């Protein structure tokens, strides 16, 4: 199958076959990213992240995507996310590129590439329970500046962003651009450190409410006490093990139930810092 006028014929045979196979798996409840760490270009910093919410391996193709992936799954309002999600209606994507007056990417044989979005998220309104799909594209901040990248490269990046925006606008899905400014290395590092207990919450989750009350009460009494001492007092108050209390602290940090300033270094031998200095 080919589309386009005689001056720009684009073959769809390969893309159609891949998308049909992808949709078939999706209909069976199996999500596969259209680009994996194995199929992405060599030289990229690639990561596989075992998802807390999804229970599957997420394929993240850069350090920035890895940080965003960790942050996104920690947020209570993100129900789940699908990484490297294809713009599955390839004919729509090609038509939008044509409308924009830009060249749709093809391989050396004229076969259309399948474009993808870094994150397709299902966000939940915590007050109403309404679920909304939001497409999010990650771009390094330096890829958007002609001070660090060639103008042609920057132009092509913005064209890809515009194409994604128009594609999702047509199907009624919100689109957002995310950069390094949205999630810092420090924040992602702390969330990565705190996420391990999220895989076995059944061992301690019954103490969550009591832990939050006791931990915050102890902190208010002595804001300058070191974190380790605060946790020790909390586990004594609740008559649970120190390891369970420490896991509860990590879990409450991970799930954003404690308003800890994740930009500040967390050290068990130093006082904890809350957002706004509270």
Can I get a quick summary?
It contains 8 helices and 8 strands. The chain is an alpha+beta fold and 278 residues long.
Keywords, please?
278 residues, 2 domains, 8 helices, single chain, Trna Endonuclease, Chain: A, domain 1, 4-stranded mixed beta sheet, 15% strand, alpha+beta
Question: What do these coordinates show?
Answer:
This protein has 278 residues and is α+β, with helices and mostly antiparallel strands. It folds into two domains: 2-178, 3-Layer(aba) Sandwich (Trna Endonuclease, Chain: A, domain 1); 185-277. The protein is 38% helix and 15% strand. The strands form three sheets. The protein has a four-stranded mixed β-sheet with strand order 5-6-7-8, sandwiched between helices. Strands 1-2 form a two-stranded antiparallel sheet. A hairpin with a 6-residue loop joins β3 and β4. α3 (90-100) crosses α4, α5 (185-194) packs across α8 and α6 (208-221) packs across α7. It is elongated. The relative contact order is 0.10. The model has no long low-confidence stretch (mean pLDDT 91).
CATH architecture of the largest domain: 3-Layer(aba) Sandwich
Instruction: State the separation between the terminal residues, measured CA to CA.
Output: 62 Å
Q: Beta-strand percentage?
A: 15-25%
The amount of helix comes to: 25-40%
Question: How do the helices and strands follow one another from N- to C-terminus?
Answer: EEHEEHEHEEHEHHHH
CATH T-level fold name of the largest domain? Trna Endonuclease, Chain: A, domain 1
Number of domains: 2
**Count of beta strands:** 8
């Amino acid at each position: 199958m080919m589309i386009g006028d005689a001056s720009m014929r684009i073959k769809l045979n390969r893309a159609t076959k891949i998308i049909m196979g992808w949709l078939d798996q999706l209909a069976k409840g199996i999500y596969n990213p259209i680009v994996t760490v194995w199929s992405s270009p060599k030289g990229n910093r690639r990561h596989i992240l075992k998802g807390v919410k999804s229970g599957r391996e997420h394929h993240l193709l850069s350090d920035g995507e890895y940080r965003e992936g960790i942050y996104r799954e920690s947020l209570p309002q993100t129900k789940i996310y699908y990484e490297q999600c294809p713009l599955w209606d390839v004919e729509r994507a090609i038509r939008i590129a044509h409308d924009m007056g830009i060249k749709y990417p093809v391989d050396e044989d004229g076969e259309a590439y399948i474009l993808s979005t870094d994150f397709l998220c299902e966000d939940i309104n915590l007050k109403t329970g309404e679920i909304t799909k939001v497409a999010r594209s990650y771009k390094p901040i330096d890829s958007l500046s002609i001070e660090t990248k060639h103008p042609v490269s920057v132009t092509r990046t913005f064209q890809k962003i515009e194409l994604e925006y128009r594609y999702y606008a047509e199907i009624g899905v919100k689109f957002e651009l995310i950069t390094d400014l949205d999630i810092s290395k420090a924040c992602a590092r702390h969330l990565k450190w705190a996420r391990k207990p999220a895989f076995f919450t059944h061992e301690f989750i019954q103490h969550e409410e009591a832990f939050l009350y006791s931990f915050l009460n102890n902190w208010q009494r002595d804001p300058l006490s070191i974190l380790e001492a605060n946790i020790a007092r909390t586990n004594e108050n609740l008559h649970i093990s120190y390891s369970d209390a420490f896991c509860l602290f990590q879990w409450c940090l991970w799930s954003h139930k404690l308003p800890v300033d994740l930009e500040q270094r967390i050290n068990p031998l130093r006082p904890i810092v809350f957002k706004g200095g509270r």
